[in-house]
Amino acid sequence: MAGIYIHIPFCTKACHYCNFHFSTSTHHIERMVAAIVQEINTLPFPAQDIDKNIETIYFGGGTPSVLNNEQLQSILNACYEKFLVTENAEITLEANPDDITRERLKGWRQLGFNRLSIGVQSFADSDLKWMNRAHNSATAADCIAMAYEERFEHLTIDLIYGTPTLSNEQLLINLKTAVNLGINHISCYALTVEENTALDYFIKKGKIAPVNEEVQDEHFHIMRQYLTDNGFEHYEISNFAKPGHRSRHNSNYWSGRPYYGFGPSAHSFNGDKMRWWNIANNVLYMDGIEKYQPVYEVENLTQEERINEIIMTGLRTTDGLHIDEANNKIGAYKTTPEAFLTFISTLRSYITEGKIIYKNNTAIINSEHRFLSDGIASDLFLSYD
Ligand code: SF4
Predict the structure, then answer these.
(1) Record keywords: 4Fe-4S included (predicted)?
(2) Which DSSP symbol is given to 46?
């Protein structure tokens, strides 16, 4: 089964740290929706042979909650007409707190959305102001309570840690607030400074202190401890879920299932070695789609690139890296003897240090050290030269 990702490239306000593709000029929304529908109807060439059975649909962005119900409906209809969407599909909408009202929640339920991802980021007003978010903490708490009342049982929030305005005490308050509100899935992201963002500019100008990695590491440990003590499973480097509430859509990315991406900047993967992604420019995307011209670039991954992706994503999750499965999928053992010996000895030393647990042919990073998983993964990367 495959997944569908729809990128809605509009936001009402630009957050200082964000480098996702979006525009704050929303007058093209109607035309953009028509282009996305057309892209789904015609399917780009590389997508023709992928599984048409769909078990997850995810509206991300940008801010999909800026679309009205008719616009959301027309995109969903296109998905249902083009694909075989399973009956119990997970259908997620990302929404910002300032867009959430009781009426809108009822409308989203009627459209078939059964999971809501709310961009809370923090419950501290000082933090939200620093990030240039469009909502305040009271709005965030109110909309979560309302979403539960409207039967959004699968609800996730995003939180950001490692910001200069976030003390350890406030981080704990954020986590306690989320737990007390009954949240069953939390995505926690370390603040990263991306090029060409307002945050990057302010740091370079000396107006904001640079990100402190020690503070981020401390925040990560506080967060992991608090959430696991409160019944959450730390199932991926940035994701925590109560039993039965893991994100099916994201879990499919990490386990290498195929996915279709529609909309500007959306990425797609055929489940093997081919990826493609749409142009990250609203006008060029709409112009190209309307003229039936390709708006994507394709990349064919080498065996080395693909196996190292499998190592990286596997080690970020609690399911870990299943060595035999990696071998069956991509030929992990067909490296040079030297590269394979280095892989084994590096793996052994991480096991001896207690950073990796190895059982049933599966390497799993000890949750305590999962913050370092990308570094550990890169030490294990295989070479085929
Ligand atoms: S709302 Fe989300 S996508 Fe839009 S600018 Fe803020 S973080 Fe980025």
Answers:
(1) yes
(2) G
